[in-house]
Amino acid sequence: MSTEVHTRFNRELHPFPGGLELKTYKELTNSKESLRTPLPDKIILPLQQHIGSPSETIVKKGDTVLKGQKIAQASGYISVPVHASTSGKILDIGTCQSIHSKSEQVPCIIIEPDGDDAWFELEPVTDYLSIDPEILQRLICEAGMVGMGGAGFPAHVKLNEGTATAIDTLIINGVECEPYISCDDRIIREKADYIVSGTRMLQHAIQAEHCVIAVEEDMPEAFEALNALIDDDIELVTVPARYPAGGEKQLIKVLTGKEVPAGGLPIHIGIVMHNVGTAGAAFRAVTRGEPLLSRYVTVSGNVEDPRNLQVLLGTPVEHCLEQVGYQRRDDEAVIMGGPMMGKHIHDISMPVVKTTNSILVTSGFNRSREKPCIGCGDCVDVCPAKLLPQELFAYARAKDFEEVRALHLFDCIECGCCAYVCPSNIPLVKYYREAKNDIAVYEKRQAGYEHTRHRFEARSERLDRIENHVDDRFDKIKTLAADQDPVEEDKQSYIQAAVERMKQKKIKRKIK
Amino acid sequence: MLGVLIILLLALISSFLISRSPETTVQQGKFEDILSALPQTQCGKCNYSGCRPYAEAIVRGEADINQCPPGGTETIKTLANLLGRQVKPLNPENGLEKDKHIALIDETLCIGCVKCIKACPVDAILGAAKQMHSVLAEECTGCELCVAPCPMDCISMQAVTG
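Structure tokens for the assembled complex are given below, as produced in the milestone run.
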């Protein structure tokens, strides 16, 4: 891997292990102006478009909402609100197809647009570079901001951690390494001013010492657009086009030579990374008061006019595909995300969400039959996380959770390099995802068992103590009670007194 | 002559090994693992008085691994894995595997007899003598032990949705 450097800071780049050189197909879309997608008939907003706990609905069926109005609130620290992306009526609070599983339904809010696109009252903030970082973080959280590179981690969480720990470097990630996807490239070319200002704002928000914007070397126009706007405060770096250079851990390695520890976070080595789209959207959210309502989506592959679209969140995928001349054919598959890490979607009525960077139509997608592993080791060479994919595969299939854990399954970034090079066509990542899911289910169940056992044992112990007079305090209480027991005569007088009191009360009530 | 001796010796050893059924070779060290694979409902459906006695019986080789309906297939798989045995279906004599249910007390009928409170192994029922009783849904494991003691027959098992 070449470490060609064209930056005024002369940053030395470091190759990351493994990875692939892929044909990018970005020329299909990256030179075309992005289009605004017209209003769809229906806006479907899932309550969970981020990592963390789902948002909680704060509107009712039949309510009228305005564009930018909050319709669901954050339900915890790692959670963000959801806003209406256009004005209209709440048609229903129901469910829609989940992207994760064909059989799973997820809760969502459905809006019928009224066509006015009337805005809710906005509260812009202009002094974004002098404002208290904590206020800035709150504003960003309230705007429903999540990482727009694809993972969807709430943006404010990464900012909060920033003020708690000293941050050396803020990295703004414009390295879009998956083939076909060019939404970051386009957003930089079209909204470079937003991104540069947003970068400065985020740097202020986390009080980072250094700030780097990274783009790929096959994005020269984007580089120039940024270069024209930045000063010495921001370092602009191009990194070699190699998949998955845009992965968080990989980009950190390339730019700094540092490695994020296994199971750790970039913050542990003084680094915070945000996507270019997040920087732009966060800037818009603060300075114009507009919450996260739309995003750039690359619609590419086997369609008539592949290009980038500016899509309102909640727009059905079908509606986006109509804009680029898509005709449904049986042998085609639609993928949400890139060809390497994206997921097949079975129902194109599902909506574009905060993390949807791309919609791809693949023609004649028919993966060859899975054959047994021949132990060639090609997957080991390309794994950017330095794992042992073929061993992981064997243990994941055998459901040996202890062993897959020991092999650092949870450091797998699911980049798909191993599956791409596998001569036996084994969909390795599918097995890893299943194993991760199985482990999560198993741990939840086991934690439940543990809790029940604890309660049962505590109860048994208590009953045992009482039964066997292990604790002399019980006897003490008994003798105390016996001491205080009034003698028979007293008892009578007590009762007499009580009866008298009741009589008095009754009389009083009658007088009233 | 030596050959015949060796053959006899091998035959003896193998017959000795075979005669030791897998049930009796369980190591005591695995007891904790076995116990933690059980759902801890203490329901007694396995024919033992609780999860711990059942685990002990498995270790002793008295009980089979397919006698726990609340744990179901998952528990059987875990036990099979721990003990190096074949996975087998749940023994229908012990009960059927079903989705999680929790107890619900019909509060209009409850007379506050505290019998269910005494029966609950995990303190999941709240109430006092002659006061209405309620089930803590979060803590109820669905063991059904409270259903039979209720003189009013006002406890029913409800499927948990979601």
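DSSP finds five helices and four strands in chain B. Strands of chain B lie at 101-105, 125-126, 134-135, 155-159. Further analysis is deferred to the final report.
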